[in-house]
Amino acid sequence: MTMKQSTRRLTAALCVAALGLMSGGAWAQKTPLLVYTALETDAMKLYKDAFEKANPDIEVKWVRDSTGIVTAKLLAEKANPQADVVAGLAASSLALLQQEGMLLAYEPKGFKDLNPAYSDAARPPAWVGMDVWAATICFNHVEAKKLGLPKPESWKDLTKPVYKGTISMPHPASSGTGYLDVSSWLQNMGDAEGWKYMDALHQNIAQYVHSGSKPCKQAGAGEFPIGISFEFRAHQVKKSGAPVDLIFPKEGLGWDIEATSLMKTSTKLEQGKRFADWMASKEANQISARWWAVVAYPGVVSKLEGIPDNYEKLLAKNDLNWAAKNRERILAEWSKRYEGKAEPK
User: Fold this and answer.
1) Which of 248, 168, 172 lies closest to 215 in space, CA to CA?
2) pTM for the predicted model, two decimal places
3) Buried b vs exposed e over 24-55: b needs ≥16 C-beta within 10 Å?
4) 3-state DSSP call for residue 271?
5) CATH numeric code, 31-132+256-308
6) Which of 11, 45, 168, 247 is deepest in the core (most CB within 10 A)?
7) Model confidence at 28, in pLDDT bands (50, 70, 90)?
8) What are the backbone dihedrals phi and psi of residue 277, each rounded to the nearest 5 degrees, phi first?
9) What is the pLDDT confidence band of residue 345, given thresholds at 50, 70 and 90?
10) Fold of 134-255+316-341
């Protein structure tokens, strides 16, 4: 080998090495995508890992809290938004953000495969549904027997004096589950009767807690025998072996939709759209179906322990835009009446 050939080979090798380093460096420089969420922590890692496997140049950075806290944070940041995407937040909250002009309407790839009933009706939609979650009562039959408590069958039953001090419920300003309960009672009973019902229920409430999951966990642990919660957590608590029965009140269940939206002010819209595309995919919906009885992609759910086959038919009348428009008024009135039993933050 001549000196010239040797030099050429060395130069070529160095170029290949340099390109490899540049490629590796570029690959290592993942684009961070800030996603505000109220997803259950059980699910967050599965969504993140699967999305990043399909999109290795993007890193999901979660900011997680309960629905009411995330909603308040987004509204407080309206003048200087931080989030790129919102995922796993109540559709009633997203409808409020849309009314404030904060969301970018976008129809993700594969949207035509989803059930349109669980996304924004506008085209393109401001938010795209992931799953439905609905009110469920967790009833600890072991503790209830000790206390001589009958098994309730309806929302009205929970106002009976026998249940005084035995019920925990999510705070509607903190929890999306708490707000869907209050909104549903007002929508389905009417304003006057709805507040009258909550006045009576309040007499039996031991504590309003700042999480939709916590009342069912409390019921499972026997802290309070009855917890107003939602079916995801109820299913998980029952599956863990806790002595709880799942009750779906016969008047109908308040409900909301976990959904995904793009923030209009994001500087990473290309990455955000890829995230929205993936969240609308069959793969993402299959993850949701591990816990939820109703998801946006038809045909991927399986039977969940304790969830009745007619579950979807139990969902009460619900106007999500009404819930969004009236949120501030409802929460102010609720706080004035019932804040005294709220769990300390």
Assistant:
1) 168
2) 0.88
3) eeeeeeeeebbbbbbbbeebbeebbebbbeeb
4) helix
5) 3.40.190.10
6) 168
7) low
8) -60, -45
9) confident
10) D-Maltodextrin-Binding Protein; domain 2 (3.40.190)
